[in-house]
Amino acid sequence: MPDKEDPCDLLKGTPGYEFCVRDNDGGGPSDGGGPPGAGGGQGLTDGAASNVRELAEGLIKKLQGLVAPDSTWAPENLDSWIYQQFLWLGQHLAVAIFVCVVVVCALTAWQGAPRLKQLGASTGWTLAAVAGMASVPGVVMLLNKALSAAFTTMFSSNESTLFVVIAKDMDDAADADNPLSVLLILAALVVALAFAALVFMTRNLGILMFVCMAPLVLASLARGGDTSAVKAWAQRLLGLLFAPFALLLVSPFVQLAEGALVMDAFLLVVADVLMLRMVFHGVPYFGPRVAGAARALVERRTDNPLARAVVRAGAPDYYEQETTPRGPRTVDTPRRAMSQDGGVLFAAYGIKHREQKGRLTTASASEKAGRDAARTAQISQARREARGAQPAPGGAPPPRSGANRPAPTPAPSPAPTPHPEPTTPGHP
Prior knowledge:
The chain is mainly alpha-helical. 61% of the residues lie in helices and 0% in strands. It has helices spanning 16-24, 44-67, 81-107, 113-156, 162-172, 179-218, 228-242, 254-257, 261-282, 287-301, 305-314, 334-348, 362-371, 373-389. The radius of gyration is 39 Å and the shape is extended.
């Protein structure tokens, strides 16, 4: 029995031979356009479905790699040049603080036990700070790898997780043959990929900044063990590391959406809202502004009410407050300074002295008002514009202008009061 011939051999020497071999693997046309018994190639519809499936799987892998990557931009060991600079500065700062504590304790050694206790605490906390500076990069690297592995387990480990359900529904869902549903899930994956890229950029930049700040923050322990700065630093760093776990709110609804690509797309939209919230709440200092910029970008580019509602849910309206700019210092007049010192003296003798509140002098108040005039004018202008934009209460029409206002009707003049005629004496 002769071997099966490859139908593509008939096209040797023509431009279509390479296309036949590459796309059909030598199997010939899918509609039987070859010798009998020749294997049929992959059809156009099957090939398109396979390409769409591969595209979806590639987007899912990119999405997972951006939201919870197994590596960050932060230094992973002490050999990093960037971290070496901050480590040198932090170590020398801790040693300088320790030397100052030793000098102060030596000069006040006559106080006894309190200074000895302070010296011991400073010594122990300085050693702990220096050791902590050297261990921060490795600890952050191991913690991030553990969190990445946990995220992968929760979202793509079995058939009840979000990404696996989406990949499965691309083949087995009731609407898998509907091109509109396929386009919808692909569009949702692309949009989710954009938000994941935003999370990736802000999260990695934040982790890099806080890891590099670690030596400077830990050096504050050398003074005696004040851990307030270290607690604030650790809280923000852990918030950045654990931010991707906000997507766990989607997990309980995965089983409900299984079997429908439209519901999978809806879950991805919810995930977009959560990722934008991750940026808003999880990224310190600049998170609200970054999320607000993403919202403004979407609102400028589209009029779709659904898209606007999604970004508004992820980046809600908010007010900002700023620190009052530092101006010239305030000092007491000679009279007030003497009055305050006199009050202290009277109090030493047991005499009550009423403390009076201070106020700026006329010249100082005038100077301060001139400095704040520009800000006051802006606030007044904004208030006037806000009042002008508000509708009249009760739906009443706005007041007419002077040109269209009718002339006022004159009030009627009072009727003349009758006066009694004078009577002549002797007449009735």
